[in-house]
Amino acid sequence: MTTRSEGRPVAVVTGAGNGLGAVIAAHLHRSGHRVAVVDVDEAAATTVAGDLDGTGETARAYGLDVTDRGAIEDLLTTLLESWGDVQVLVNNAARTQATPLLEISSEELASVMAVNIGGTFAACQVFGRHMAAAGYGRIVNLGSLAGQNGGTATGGHYASSKGAVLAATKVFARELASAGVTVNAVSPGPLDLPVVRRIVGEADVDRFAETIPVGRLGSPEFIAEMVALLASPGAASVTGACWDANGGLYVR
């Protein structure tokens, strides 16, 4: 019996229970992917997946702490059993905590690093190994302007972790290129998302936007389009790259 999900590539999006991850998951789903909506908040992931496809045929929710490597391995096994393969991994899960730089404790530093770089690194290993064996794959890691210019509005440990994500993107790209797997990053600047408005303060959003050379917050949907383009079969010659979308705040 033929189902409407057959022939649709499978994409895993971490941190997809809200914010940018949910936008990316929705865009990939609209563009023809089956999407595993992954988040530490399983209830939030379930809501997002249900909005995409209430039948669960082309969108499913998975509760997952990306700091748990065993859970990542179990997720891959589950997806292979249920959907047969995984072609796309989007590492979006991240933790931000705007603690003043000199007040960040060792415990808080370790916690942020464990999610932001530890989770990304482990997922690249687990899914990258599978994709390499299959001879095809697309991995997209979410970096950040903070990881490029050292901004601390979302925490110095967050910025440091995102710098590490960009380095990890390069090393995995080199390792997996010959196996048909590309690994790239997208580094957004301030986006028009609730988390940004909360950090800036709703009353100060317009004033903050004036400090951005283009005069506006970035579009989450456009970031999702960038991710989808890097996740497409046609992006075979792009690997180890970081695509910036920061409104001109960082130019290189």
Automatic annotation (TrEMBL):
<dbReference type="GO" id="GO:0006633">
    <property type="term" value="P:fatty acid biosynthetic process"/>
</dbReference>
<keyword id="KW-0560">Oxidoreductase</keyword>
<dbReference type="GO" id="GO:0048038">
    <property type="term" value="F:quinone binding"/>
</dbReference>
<dbReference type="GO" id="GO:0004316">
    <property type="term" value="F:3-oxoacyl-[acyl-carrier-protein] reductase (NADPH) activity"/>
</dbReference>
<dbReference type="InterPro" id="IPR036291">
    <property type="entry name" value="NAD(P)-bd_dom_sf"/>
</dbReference>
<dbReference type="InterPro" id="IPR002347">
    <property type="entry name" value="SDR_fam"/>
</dbReference>
<comment type="similarity">
    <text>Belongs to the short-chain dehydrogenases/reductases (SDR) family.</text>
</comment>
<protein>
    <submittedName>
        <fullName>3-oxoacyl-[acyl-carrier protein] reductase</fullName>
        <ecNumber>1.1.1.100</ecNumber>
    </submittedName>
</protein>
<dbReference type="Pfam" id="PF13561">
    <property type="entry name" value="adh_short_C2"/>
</dbReference>
